[in-house]
Amino acid sequence: MAAVFSTSASTRERHFVFETRRHNGQNPLFSESRVKQIAQYQDGRLELQDVPAPVPPPGGILARVTHSVISVGTEKMKVEQARMNLLQKARARPDQVRKVLDTARNLGWRSAWEKVRNRLETPTPLGYSAAGVVAAVDAGHSRFRVGDRVACGGAECAFHAEYIAVPDLLTARVPEGVANWQAAYTTVAAIALQAVRQADPGLGDRVAVLGQGLIGLLVTNLLAVHGARVMAVDLLEGRRALCLTLGAERMVVAGAQNLTDEAREWSAGLGVDIAVICTAGDSNLPVEQAAEILRDRGRMVVVGNTRADLAWKVFYGKELEVRYSRSYGPGRYDPAYEWGGADYPPGYVRWTEQRNFDACLRLMATGQLKLAEITTRRAPFASAPAVYQQLLAGDSADIGVVLEYGEGGDLPAGQATVLADAVPGDQRAGAIRLAKPASHVDVIGAGNFARTMLLPHLRGRLPFGAVVNQTALSANHVKSKFGFASAGTDYQQILAEKAEGAVLIATRHHLHAPLVRAALSAHRQVFVEKPLCLSRSELEEIDASVASSKGTVQVGFNRRFAPATAALKAALAACPGPKTCVFKVNAGRLDPDHWYANVAESGGRVVGEVCHFLDFFCHLLGRPRRIFAQSLRPAEGRLPFPDSVAAQVEFADGSCGQLVYSGEGDPRYPKESLTVFASGLVAEIVNFQSLTVWQGRREKKWTYASKGHAEQMAAWAAFLRAESPHPLPYTEARQSMRLTFALVASLQQSSPVELTG
Question: Residue 251, SS3?
Fold first, then answer.
């Protein structure tokens, strides 16, 4: 028997909020356009290619790149290895040779050669450190919004390309005071910062940094910021002034000066406390030199891809400690962290790679990272192949090379996304009446809300048919309590029957859309608790189902049925012209363990709850035209979505609705308070229990006991008995849901959203 909560009636598709216009739920940028990206072939060729534009990964972002940094040493080595012949490649990568031999043993030499040839023919991307502006976000994402400036990292995603798709934990928000070209260094700087964390120097420790390329210079800079005393070591005399500017006390030119003597003199004969090796290559000399100059029980940190044969006599004799520094920090190369979004708890891993990104950006904001001094060239992205050629030819003394992609920074102020709409046919205009009464009501999902707020008000108005719940025990309990004819756990049995009964759906939110579509396919009259659905794509699917069904849909927007609402509308009927409506919702804090905290089930508080109040605006003020929303960012680790939102809605007649929905207030303040200003009248509803009207120097007050649940059920039952028209036309319910999704889009892109159609 299938459980009601494991439906296969519909699969939620991922959808995104984009920087540019959307058409029918899709963005032409990502369905038609191509973007430029640097491609490297295994024969060493470099091309600027047109490639399909990417889309955000689950829980991640799409960034429009404004700047990226060429890591001269790393990327030059990668291109040089690509230009080697097969024998040279084999010598440089014996690990790959072993893989080829294993393939040959298992599948034969022909298959092994085919794999090698395919790999050589396949282009690979370059780049791993970039910055730009968020152009799109995954729909369930909350940490970033369209228009946010971000730094992105990862050799698997932060390419030299116009657009890059990056997971959440390889992205960091750029603070004020940091330019995008600086932020592009974030990933490179995080490599240096992780090396410093592995070195773990104490205040005043003497540290030798061997190799003053881009990473080595940043390590020198960060060690000085940390309070260590630094001796920089490099082969190039030309690096001396730069090293001293970045905070080194002394610079030694290896080969021209005796490193051992210089280190002994600098350390007063003790030896250096720590040696950080930032060189790359097949020579073991840097490791040998570091071991020579380290003091007894000193520490060696290997950062670069360098040979490290440890001479037993030296390392044992001094009891040296050797540490490797892995890339940007903990989380690197862990797919569950980088792509699955499984962050490490700070109590166990204080400095992950993403938190290292944040730390580097803070150092940029305070001016402690001296990036202007190490940036030797800023070149247009279009010239990237020529820049690489110069680096490979040895014609360049560049250290930090920044590629610029044209106009960057924030999106143009006031740019609005337009959500175009085509109203589906049928059920769109005029009052709908049933020609024949419904025989009964079946219920899918009879939890506590349905048992307390819906079923008591429906009982006695129509016969109850079948009730379906998650467990047989709870279904049987509801059957006995409310007098249902039968109970079960399989909703498909209800909908498979050719019945003239209606269906009430009150499951958790993620099941609303598939169950509504299934019920409409069976031509049933449907009541579904809010929200109708969790995404625009689901709304479009329901549109199609409504257009082809003899059934109808009513959404549980009960506040429009409240007696206070009816009295307010009657008072406003004599007030011509636009109105201003201010709705304050003191929602209270949400427990992180509450099922609402699971966005996949609930849609979050915006979709799951705020839709109620947007529907009230639409009921009171008419067709919405434009919305702009902002939110408090959720406290780190508390909730995966914003639960405090402020929104301003413009309506077609010029009216204005202002909504403040807060999860931060004191519970002693009223939960819901509404004030309307219109043509010499002020009206106020508090918790839908009282209505006060000030007009003509007179004040009148009424009190009520209902938020509209009883009236809503009574109106739907009258429709099912064929006594009155449908109480809430589908066009109005879908208009409220469209406004809800427009609010979500506005939050994510930090700009207004216009609604057309």
Answer: strand
